[in-house]
Write a structure and sequence with these properties.
This protein is of the alpha+beta class. It contains four helices and three strands; from the N terminus they run H-H-E-E-E-H-H. Helices cover 48% and strands 23% of the residues. A hairpin with a 3-residue loop joins strand 1 and strand 2.
Length: 126
Amino acid sequence: MIKKYIKLSEEEKLIIKKMSLISNIPETTIKSVFMALLMTCTGEYYRNNALEFFVPYIAKFGVSLKNLSTAKGVETEVILNSKPLMGLVEEVIAIDQDVITPSEQFIKHSLKNVLNIKIDRKKGDE
């Protein structure tokens, strides 16, 4: 039986809700962006039978398939490999070094421009 619609798990719903709260972007917009990413990946797989895709700022992903013989017959395993992009690498390194992260810097400048306020952080401010 083929599912007509993709259903999100409770864990996926929770992360979308967190992303919405943190970013002040509506959940429907966040879901739409991820659905666009899924549709792009699907289209690429149809075209090339190989899949490589990017989640901007986060990682480059490669997807491959492996067919396994089981007692139930042939089952397909989907294998996902990833390589972090510089956006994520720079965030993690900044957190590790206890300095302001690029995303914190972005937020700081956005708030400063909108509200004309100074936002302080313990170490490494700018």
